[in-house]
Amino acid sequence: MMKTYENFNELQRDVIREIGNIGAGSAATALSQLLNEKVTISVPSLHIIDVEKIITVLGGPEKIVAGVLVNMTQDIEGMLFYILNNEFVRIIHKQLLGEPIDDYKNITEIGMSALTEIANILSGSYINALSAFTNLDIRLSTPHIAIDMVGALLNYPAARFGEIGDKLLLVEEDFISDEESVTSHMLIMPDIRSLDLILKRLGVE
What we know:
Elements: H1 10-35, E1 40-41, E2 45-50, H2 51-57, E3 64-74, E4 78-84, H3 86-97, H4 109-134, E5 138-140, E6 144-149, H5 150-160, E7 167-177, E8 180-190, H6 192-202
Antiparallel strand pairs: 1-7, 2-7, 3-4, 3-5, 3-6, 4-8, 7-8
Helix pairs in contact: 1-4, 3-4
């Protein structure tokens, strides 16, 4: 039987969570080097919830956020989709560029490039950990960034990966730096074949 997130058991969740822990550790190290200060990342929180509840978690359909889409190819097909709130963008912009901003509308082109680099670090750390566990060749595209309402941003991944069921896998992590803490939200969306293959390689199909 093909797996969907709806019928994930606790063992499968634990394995995915552990991969997230390893990826988070790598991301914290890379971000510390990039920002030239210590960054810690909380133990990732794993949620398997439907799209409507994800929208609520993210602040409602009309909340403006930054969405960062990264496509997965080769052995695994699918996407990683990051939702970064205004506070996350503000702190990253200030720490990387030394320029405080109050709102998304004030973000510069260089600021957008900085967000792209952060997305590269986050997605690369997670996928490198997943590749090491599964011995699969997973390639990542250049991140695509858009600033829009939550509801509009989630329309595309929900439509493209509706075949995996009504629920999506949401990973939340807290980034802590210089006494400030912000949360990132990442949706992990392999296609059905890829999800089956990942679980088989992890020995928890």
